[in-house]
Amino acid sequence: MNKLLSGAVLGLGTVVATGTAWAQEAAATATAAVTTAAAEATAAAPAAAAAVVEATVNKGDVAWMMTSTLLVILMVVPGLALFYGGLVRAKNMLSVLMQVMVVFSLASVLWAVYGYSLAFGGEGLIIGNLDKAFLSGITLESLSATFTPGVMIPELIFVAFQATFAGITCALVVGSFAERIKFGAVLLFTVIWFTFSYVPIAHMVWGGGGYLFAQGALDFAGGTVVHINAAVAGLVGAYMLGKRIGYGRESMAPHSLTLTMVGASLLWVGWFGFNAGSNLEANAGAALAFVNTLVATAGAVLAWCVGEALTKGKASMLGAASGAVAGLVAITPACGTVGPMGAIVMGVISGFLCLWGVTGLKRLLNADDSLDVFGVHGVGGIVGALLTAVFSATAFGGIKGEGYDMAHQLYVQAEGVVITMVWSAVVAFVAYKVVDLLVGLRVSEEAEREGLDISSHGETAYHR
Q: What b/e readout covers 341-362, taking b as 16+ CB neighbours within 10 angstroms?
């Protein structure tokens, strides 16, 4: 009897004992039971769905985001500062360290005062609003969304993480006009450019309602917002300040490639927080960004070394360090959507093209971009932004599958690149003009020859 009832339940009404009334009754009872259970499950579905999307905060995600924020700070101070400092002449070492540290600090404060609110508050097409100015309304209980519905992180750590992005973007610009600009001019320019270029671009790409965000632009960790944005501002500055005294006639070789190597290494380490942290959660998405950051950078180092060996006969330490930065820049917009093999290809391509950027392209531009900010961050950012559209497709190992239109995405990526370049260039030009009128851009010839360490800060990096 039990065997027959079990068969009736599993078969949802299959007649086991044909012609017997009790078997038919058992089958009907089983069908009714299953129907009732299905109805109960359907009724419970909305409640289950509500439970899934209910806001939850994972302590592991919070710890990862705090660690990532620290890693990005490591990228800037001391990473970028030492990388840039080693590339200038000894008499300007401290001036570069000072500019990077203070610009980062200034941008961080501006971010808390109004930058965060304008970038991530409101649903404007180009800019947000000031509802969260001075971090108004952000408490210990305030939460910020991640990429997973219902999974949240404290808004305070999101504010801090994004502040480091704003800070490093402004600090990157320093490399283009190093060794000849007034310290006060650097700070005033930072305030203007941060307000009218970095913040709107960040909102357009990452903010709710932002124009490029709505278009579907892919920029996982800041290819357009950070690197292209900063590189264009730096290039404009290089033109407007003019070339350094003795440029092309006197030796302006880096004074310490050892420190440059240390700085590049810290940049590479810190960049894992920059890229993998942009996933906002400690999960497989962060792991993908992590491994892509590793292999793309390694590929770019090898490509740059090969390129130098073929063109100059020798591979240099400076080239290897520059190649690492080129790979890091290129993979930044793509690290969360491409596969590891695609990341390696992107790294190799960026290594070769950025080598051309600091040699052939630099000669064509005829600008004294002191530390090759545009050649590496500009070229690498453009290459990375465009190739993101290609290698994000599953056909090339990416995660964008059914319905992904590579041609359309490439158009969107190109639109983002053009908008960023034009916007940053216009704002930078106006900002430099305003600064020049108010405080002057360039130090005197005497101060430049003496070195900015002494003339601007009254200190020297090295004592004999």
A: ebbbbbbbbbbbbbbebbbebb
Compute, in degrees rounded to 10, the torsion defined by CA atoms 160, 166, 167, 169. Answer: 150
Q: Enumerate the β-bridge partners of residue 152.
A: 57, 145
- The two three-digit tokens of residue 373, written as one number: 């900010």
* Nearest CA among 245, 152, 212, 158 for reference residue 414: 212
347-372 pLDDT tens trace: 999 999 999 999 999 999 999 999 99
Q: Which amino acid is at 213?
A: F
Question: How far apart (Å, rounded) are the C-alpha atoms in residues 326 and 301?
Answer: 8
Asked whether 152 and 57 are in contact (CB, 8 A), the reply is yes
Dist CA 381 CA 225 (whole Å): 10
Q: E strands within 45-193?
A: 56-57, 143-145, 151-154
pLDDT attached to residue 3: 36
Three-state DSSP at 242 gives coil
Closest CA to 90 of 243, 224, 253: 253
Q: Residue 175 and residue 99: Cα distance in Å, rounded?
A: 10
Under the banding of pLDDT at 50, 70 and 90, the label for residue 53 is low
3-class state of residue 151 by DSSP: strand
Mean pLDDT along residues 132-144: 97
The three-state secondary structure class of 428 is helix
